Amino acid sequence: MNKKVLIKLFLSTLYLSAFTFGGGYVIVTLMKKKFVDEYHWIENDEMLDLVAIAQSAPGAIAVNGAIVVGYKIAGIPGVMVAIFATVIPPFLIISVISMFYIIFRENRFIAYMLEGMQSGVGAVIASVSFQMGTGIVKKGFLNIVIMATAFFLSFCLKINVIYIILLCIVAGVVKTLLSKNVEESK
Question: 118 is in which domain, residue-wise?
Fold first, then answer.
């Protein structure tokens, strides 16, 4: 395995993890920008698949994203490097915050800063959702129906996301099997 790739993967993932606020969806967006748009290590369609895997697997989405991206780029060594780089910044930050919790809790400036970051996080998640959604829309009408149905079930009917994910897995399997049958009959 190329040591330069592992070092670049480590530094990129460490940087992304250190400066990402707002949860796993934000880091996945930044991973897309870094590994798809900047480094061209992963194709855009592949990144959509990797994000789906990261979201579907149990655990923190940032770590799951690091696992699938690290594996895609450099196999098992890439997984180890990406996980380690992703976990270090939050571990250190939370350790420091826990030592000074009372000071942080009562500091009005920090409360305002965190409130402002929430707005930025919302904008980043909306941007990524739009970018990834347009990639799905380009793949066909059925994908639009699945995406709209999942949104409706979650947002309007308040159905648990776990059930929606399971339903989408079934829809994806059925769609794939049907498309293979159509190809074989040609």
Answer: 3-139
